[in-house]
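Pasting as-is:
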Amino acid sequence: MTSQIQFSLFTKPWRTLSVPELGTFVRDLGFDGIEFPLRDGYQLTPDQAHRLPELVKQFGEYGVKIFSVASRTDEKVFAGCAEAGIPMIRIMPEITLEEGYLASEERERRRLEALLPLCEKYGVKIGVQQHYGNNIVDCTGLMRLIGEFDPRYVGAVWDAAHDALAGQQPEFGLDIVWSHLCMANFKNVFYRRTNGPEAAVAEWKRHFTTARHGLASWPRAVNYLKKRNYSGIVCLTAEYTDEEHIGDYIREDINYAKSLFQ
């Protein structure tokens, strides 16, 4: 089963590394490729999207592919991805308290509709991910937004941690988005109370942790993907509240993920 899966690493935490340093790091961890944060402050910015072919070539020298970018949806980003052979741009819809959920959802639906000509022109897909907070928080809401779009152009990026924060079981979340699933994100998280029982009102924060220690069951998610013969990208997003030991954590988690898919 592992041969059907390509493992990707979201390189957001390593913005200060040079491309050779990052390529070596990703290769030595055992990933097949990366999701690159094409954002301001990183090795390449959205205004430099025309240089994506050069970046792909640089990473290729280390045996590392670029499977997707997390970025804006300007036409220059579409054009750069198309020229570089990068098939997907990942985004997260924004839901605001000022607009309300339904009005925000409608805005995001119109935004996706406006992007369809660019998807078709350049052959690049938009991958839409759920996320806690001022976003669409679970797979039900995600498919309510994207379900009517052609999955060739608009896909679902399922995220284990964010579905778990919303209380969704991995088998249900994956089943809901299956028709549009284009990437599976793996990370883990739990809620931590930040004040004591003597407080008038409880306060909670999210603590992002390693694969085995959060609300999301990686084994259950992987078993479901294997049951349905998933062949595609599994992306480890390397999000940990304890950033000091991130190198140790991601090494542990990629080895665990690979063992589950065997």
